[in-house]
Design brief:
alpha/beta; disordered N terminus; about 40% helix; globular; 7-stranded mixed β-sheet; 15 helices
């Protein structure tokens, strides 16, 4: 049944053609073709993204928003075209709601240091979950310590799912913000984000969604979700590193104080008083990461041209196939068995340390992630030091899953 599904997906998503667009996948390591299964850490980049970066530096390189010469105007047009592409990609109401940052981490910190410092007071409560990435834990810990607010944590069950009954109990009129991941980077769990947003809004709380892992796998429509903030990183969606997005509802962003001071985010400056620029430039101080932002549009275009639904279906088929195959390995335990999950499998085998398994798989040119995946509290919840994590993307194949299984079996014999 799984192979029939796989065959059907392969007829709709031309994986060989997709793979040909990713030059790194042609590499060999130790004279073996690379099997890249570390996509939750970062995705590989297709030729359109690489060419967009090169083209910008070869033909357009200039600072934006500040010049009247041809190069400056061309650079500004290309930069703002990405903003419009992101707006359409995630379904925002206006381009002013799209703020460019260095990534999800900076986006979350921006909200914590602006909206948070303005609106969180002593005794207020912020809710996160036990499966959060450190980037969605530490900023709120810092804010709560400074403001004498309370940080509450939604627990997870043994399957790696949020215990929604406990979330409901945590909500109260004191809840001012719920900061939650859409998809767990460690477990692949897809959280019931629409329900979470509705429940939080019912007690008057705002919701920030960490979309770092969701944006590459799911069709994101922020207006439909009705989240107040949404953060994601370009490098997780086949784009460059060092560029990310913060979406915020326009009225919220307009009401918030500035984050960083400097050029570009100002309207007028005098020694007596400074007035600030309108959205989105209010939050984009200094010269931004122009080339990588321009190339982010190429990544979005590539995903949309390939087909979000086709990508999702292919990744789901890979996940089902890999789960079935891995569970046939004796003594292998998968962490994260949620009913609703996407392309991540975290596992351990008996007493084998994840790092040892990772090294032996690397010797076979199989790239996986090992460790706590910046989710140490979640690892503590399961009583483990970390896991081996295989994560899938549009260019992965069923043959690569077979190679992973074979590699694990070989490594297991060497380690046990």
């Amino acid at each position: 049944m799984i192979m029939e599904t796989a065959s059907a997906i392969l007829n709709t998503l031309p994986v060989s053609e997709v793979r040909s667009q990713f030059p790194l996948l042609q590499r060999t390591i130790n004279n073996k073709p690379i099997v890249y299964l570390d996509n939750a850490a970062t995705t590989q980049k297709p030729w359109p993204v690489i060419n967009a970066l090169r083209d910008f530096y070869v033909n357009t390189n200039a600072n934006i928003h500040r010049g009247i010469h041809t190069l400056a105007e061309e650079a500004t047009t290309a930069y703002e075209a990405t903003r419009l592409a992101v707006q359409s990609f995630i379904g925002a109401a206006a381009p002013e709601e799209i703020i460019f940052t260095r990534g999800t981490t900076e986006s979350i910190n921006l909200v914590a240091n602006t909206w948070g410092k303005q609106n969180i007071h002593e005794g207020d409560e912020i809710i996160i979950s036990a499966m959060e990435h450190h980037s969605n834990i530490v900023p709120w810990q810092i804010l709560c310590a400074e403001k004498k607010a309370v940080l509450k944590v939604v627990p997870v069950n043994d399957a790696g799912e949020l215990i929604m009954e406990e979330f409901e109990k945590l909500l109260s009129p004191k809840t001012k913000l719920v900061a939650i991941t859409y998809v767990s980077n460690s477990l692949g769990t897809i959280n019931p984000i629409s329900d979470i947003i509705t429940m939080a809004h019912n007690v008057g709380a705002l919701v920030l969604v960490d979309g770092a892992q969701a944006t590459v796998h799911l069709n994101i429509q922020v207006q439909h979700l009705n989240c107040d903030f949404y953060a994601f990183s370009g490098h997780k969606i086949y784009g460059p590193t060092g560029v990310g997005v913060l979406y915020g509802k326009q009225a919220l962003l307009e009401s918030m104080p500035v984050f960083m001071g400097g050029g570009e985010m100002i309207k007028e400056v005098s020694f007596e008083k400074t007035t600030y620029a309108v959205l989105p430039y209010k939050y984009e101080a200094g010269t931004p990461n122009i080339a990588d932002t321009v190339a982010l549009k190429a990544a979005i275009d590539f995903m949309q041209q390939t087909g979000i639904e086709k990508i999702q279906a292919h990744e789901n088929a890979l996940l089902a196939y890999a789960t079935d195959k891995l569970l046939q390995i004796d003594a292998l335990h998968i962490y994260g068995t949620a009913k609703n999950k996407t392309g991540v499998i975290s596992f351990l085998i008996k007493n084998i340390h994840p790092q040892d398994m990772g090294v032996l798989l690397d010797n076979q040119a199989i790239a996986v992630r090992t460790g706590h995946h910046c989710t140490q509290p979640l690892m503590h919840r399961f009583g483990i030091p970390g896991t081996v994590r295989a994560s899938f993307a549009m260019y992965n194949t069923f043959e690569e899953v077979d190679a992973l299984v074979k590699g694990i079996e070989k490594s297991k014999k060497m380690l046990l």
